[in-house]
Amino acid sequence: MKLLKMQHGLMHVTLLLGLVFGLRKMLYNMHNQHINTLLKAAPRLWMQTDNVMLSQRRQAIALSSFPVKQIMS
């Protein structure tokens, strides 16, 4: 079950990365001169998405470990 969840997570990450790089390539081809402003904004966007993903992962971990603790005690 955990392996399945991990594979699912990896799939999401690869999809996300593919989307990001695909979009970036498209934008790069379209607006060569605007790429610098995009790159300046990128770290902030990455931070936001990382925070969202981290909080989701924490929630998932908390939810998945909750019943186990109940059964153990």
Primary descriptors:
73 residues; 92% helix; elongated; mainly alpha
Give me a quick take on this structure:
The protein is mainly α. It contains 2 helices and no strands.
Q: What can you tell me about this protein's structure?
A:
The protein has 73 residues and is an all-alpha fold. It has one domain (2-72). Helix content is 92%, strand content 0%. The protein has helices at residues 2-30, 35-72. The longest helix has 38 residues, at 35-72. The radius of gyration is 18 Å and the shape is elongated.
Please work out how many helical segments DSSP would assign. 2
| Number of extended strands | 0
**N-to-C series of helices and strands:** HH
Q: Are there runs of 5+ residues with pLDDT below 50, and where?
A: none
Structural class: mainly alpha
Please estimate the helix content: over 70%
Number of domains: 1
User: If you compute it from the alpha carbons, what radius of gyration comes out, rounded to the nearest whole angstrom?
Assistant: 18 Å
What's the pLDDT, averaged over the residues?
Answer: 71
Shape: elongated
Strand percent estimate? under 5%
Distance between the termini: 22 Å
Biggest sheet features: none
Would you spell out the secondary-structure blueprint of this structure?
Layout: H1 2-30, H2 35-72
